[in-house]
């Protein structure tokens, strides 16, 4: 297992050019094997170079050259000149001192980078987890969606069937309404035709008999068809062997023409359609008499109601 702290320390020293041969080889091997170490070394080298650009070159004192020559004469060193290599060496040591000063900052950055690496490792842990549960979860979601889709489809089919049945019922009612409308239209036409052909006469009958003073009688007579409707109200009861009989008086005939027996209910009311046994051609008048049960062909009993 790789010693992370050791290689981080080697990377820091390498950026300052302070590694020995063995340590340099060990670091180079780690860089070749581990991309994280390689990235760390690149970041530290970049930071070191940036710090180098920030260091201001130190100008040596004006009398340093004289002092160096004096020192060399005092120690018996031959030659009074200062070599260019010595100056470059002195500048290098100054740059190294500046790097040493910045090493504290680098160590702080190292600690921060270690914390960032740990945080990244924790963040990557869920990503590196086995994907089988996610696949299973996806299958479960797919099954749920499939069930929901089937449910929606069933609901749609049910609504479609209900709407289809409702449409069929509406069409049936529409057809029935059309048939009824056609029937009513034909009936209206027939009634209009009858009205144009008919000659209606309305007559009210009255009585001079005391028992029938409150009786009401109305006759609607269609002379062209020789038929009509009679309506009675508040008629007194007759004996069990008697009936009321309606008569149509035709001025052209010597005797009233029978229009049949009129049966009243327990309240003395009646409404019935009648047709005389003979055609009536003239202006008709009407009368009611009390006859024996079942009626008679020729009036025999008393006339109780007569038209004007």
Question: What is this structure's SSE topology?
Answer:
Layout: H1 4-15, H2 21-33, H3 35-54, H4 64-75, H5 84-128, H6 132-197, E1 200-205, E2 216-222, E3 227-233, E4 242-249, E5 257-262, E6 270-274, E7 285-292, E8 303-306
Antiparallel strand pairs: 1-2, 2-3, 3-6, 4-5, 4-7, 7-8
Helix pairs in contact: 1-2, 1-3, 2-3, 3-5
Number of strands: 8
Spatial order of the strands forming the largest sheet: 1-2-3-6
Main sheet record? 4 strands, antiparallel
Measured by DSSP, the beta-strand proportion falls in: 15-25%
General form? rod-shaped
Radius of gyration: 67 Å
Structural class: alpha+beta
End-to-end Cα distance, whole Å, is 137 Å
Question: What is the mean pLDDT?
Answer: 77
What's the tally of helices? 6
Parts with pLDDT < 50 across at least 5 consecutive residues: 79-98
Order of SSEs: HHHHHHEEEEEEEE
Can you describe what's shown?
The chain has 308 residues and is α+β, with helices and mostly antiparallel strands. The chain is built from six helices and eight strands; from the N terminus they run ααααααββββββββ. Strands 1-2-3-6 form a four-stranded antiparallel beta sheet, with no helix packed on it. Strands 5-4-7-8 form a four-stranded antiparallel beta sheet, with no helix packed on it. A hairpin with a 7-residue loop joins β4 and β5. α1 packs across α2, α2 crosses α3 and α3 runs antiparallel to α5. It is rod-shaped and about 190 Å long. About 6% of the residues have low confidence.
Give me a quick take on this structure.
The protein is α+β, with helices and mostly antiparallel strands. It is 55% helix and 17% strand. The chain has 6 helices and 8 strands; from the N terminus they run H-H-H-H-H-H-E-E-E-E-E-E-E-E.
């Amino acid at each position: 297992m790789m010693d992370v702290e050791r290689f981080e320390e080697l990377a820091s020293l390498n950026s300052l050019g302070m590694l020995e041969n063995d340590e340099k080889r060990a670091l180079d091997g780690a860089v070749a094997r581990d991309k994280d170490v390689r990235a760390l070394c690149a970041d530290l080298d970049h930071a070191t170079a940036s710090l180098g650009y920030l260091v201001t070159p130190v100008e040596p004192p004006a009398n340093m050259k004289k002092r160096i020559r004096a020192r060399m004469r005092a120690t018996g060193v031959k030659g009074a000149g200062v070599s260019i290599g010595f100056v470059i060496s002195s500048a290098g040591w100054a740059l190294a001192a500046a790097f040493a000063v910045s090493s504290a900052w680098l160590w702080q950055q190292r600690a921060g980078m270690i914390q960032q690496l740990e945080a990244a490792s924790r963040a990557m842990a869920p990503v590196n987890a086995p994907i089988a549960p996610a696949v299973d979860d996806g299958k479960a979601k797919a099954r749920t969606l499939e069930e929901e889709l089937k449910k929606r489809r069933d609901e749609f089919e049910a609504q479609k069937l209900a709407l289809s049945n409702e449409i069929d019922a509406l069409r049936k009612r529409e057809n029935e309404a059309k048939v009824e409308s056609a029937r009513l239209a034909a009936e209206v036409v027939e009634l209009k035709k009858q009205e144009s052909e008919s000659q209606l006469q309305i007559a009210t009958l009255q009585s001079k008999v005391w028992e029938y003073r409150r009786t009401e009688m109305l006759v609607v007579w269609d002379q062209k068809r020789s038929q009509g409707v009679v309506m009675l109200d508040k008629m007194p009861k007759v004996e069990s062997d008697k009936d009321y009989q309606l008569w149509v008086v035709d001025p052209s005939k010597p005797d009233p023409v029978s229009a049949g027996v009129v049966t009243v209910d327990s309240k003395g009311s009646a409404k019935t359609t009648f047709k005389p046994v003979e055609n009536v051609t003239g202006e008709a008048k009407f009368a009611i008499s009390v006859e024996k049960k079942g009626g008679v062909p020729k009036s025999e009993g008393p006339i109780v109601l007569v038209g004007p």
